[in-house]
Amino acid sequence: MLQVQDIHKTFGDFKAVNGANLSVGEGELVAVIGPNGAGKTTLFNLITGQLKPDQGKITFMNEDISQLPTHKICLKGLARSFQIANIFHRLSVFRNVQVSVLSQKGLSGKLFRPVQKVAVTETNNILESVGLIEKAQYIAGSLSHGDQRMLEIAIALGNEPKMLILDEPTAGMSPEETAATMALIQQLAETRGLTILFCEHDMDVVFNVSQSIMVMHHGSTIIQGKPEAVRVDSDVQEAYLGDDYA
Ligand code: ADP
Ligand code: MG
Q1: Single residue among 96, 129, 159 that ends a domain in this structure
Q2: How far is ligand 2, taken at its centre, from the CA of residue 31, in Å?
Q3: Nearest C-alpha to atom 27 of ligand 1 is from which residue?
Q4: Ligand 1 center from residue 159 Cα (angstroms)
Q5: Span from the CA of 185 to the centroid of ligand 2 (angstroms)
Q6: CA distances for 3 relative to 10, 21, 128, 169, angstroms
Q7: What is the 109 CA–ligand 1 centroid distance (Å)?
Q8: Using CA of residue 54, residue 80, residue 73, residue 69, what is the dihedral sign?
Q9: Which atom of ligand 1 is nearest to the CA of 34?
Q10: Is the C-beta atom of 40 inside 6 A of ligand 1?
């Protein structure tokens, strides 16, 4: 579904992404791991068009998207969340998701009608699937950190993506919230037939849920493979994992 081939991105003379390769199959849950500063967020920005690559090719569903702007990539079915949640804090939870559903349908103008009865079922379905239906009328800014991260995923789902990219979805969460969030993400992948690419620093989470893991170091891909293969790779251990995961 997604192929990243030898992608490069330089900031000044600093090579933030320096030969990254990635392959994501339809329906897969794929993790990108690597130390802080390895280039994971930059790679995601390149895939979703926030940044343009200096070199290399990105193909999504057999189409070259390397030079497309963000909104065009989004319309093709590739949505993302950010490392820092990106929500409308003063709107209700419901409204945050409804806005996204409406904009996907090209109906954003309808938002200013007195009674906003549009896309209610669809919005509620999404809220249900991320476990926020009971908090639909809460002001988004009043949600816990974990719930705000889930709301951001709900907003991304409003775009009806085929593939979802999540940048550290459990960052700043307690162990309990992390477990619950990952369970929800796994469930989303199954029930909605979503393909999910994420990066995450919690190695237990990564090795538990991923079908495939790509390891980045200094902007380059060291390896991509099944968790069992990545765990025993000597380059990975040297670069990153330490003996705990041998
Ligand atoms: P990760 O997400 O793996 O922690 P990032 O992709 O955020 O890594 O960053 C990779 C490197 O690129 C870091 O050293 C970071 O400081 C640098 N970097 C990221 N974005 C920029 C930018 N816009 N300008 C300059 N340097 C950047
Ligand atoms: Mg990052």
Answers
A1: 159
A2: 13
A3: 11
A4: 27
A5: 19
A6: 20, 8, 32, 22
A7: 37
A8: negative
A9: 3
A10: yes
- pLDDT tens profile 140-173: 999 998 899 999 999 999 988 999 999 999 988 8
Atom of ligand 1 nearest to the CA of 42: 6
What's the total number of domains in the chain?
A: 2
CA distance 156 to 163: 10
Q: How many residues does the chain have?
A: 246
228 pLDDT above the threshold of 50: yes
pLDDT at residue 88 in the model: 92
User: 41 CB under 6 A from ligand 1?
Assistant: yes
Q: Which amino acid is at 62?
A: N
Instruction: Evaluate if residue 245 carries a pLDDT over 70.
Output: no
Residue of the nearest CA to atom 24 in ligand 1? 11
Q: Which residues pair with 81 in a beta bridge?
A: 166
Classify strands 29-33 and 78-81 as parallel, antiparallel or unpaired.
unpaired
Find out whether the beta carbon of 158 lies less than 6 Å from any atom of ligand 1.
no
Task: Give the span between the Cα atoms of 10 and 36, in whole angstroms.
Answer: 17
Position 189, amino acid: A
- Tell me which of 159, 179, 197 is where a domain ends: 159
Residue 114 included in any domain: yes
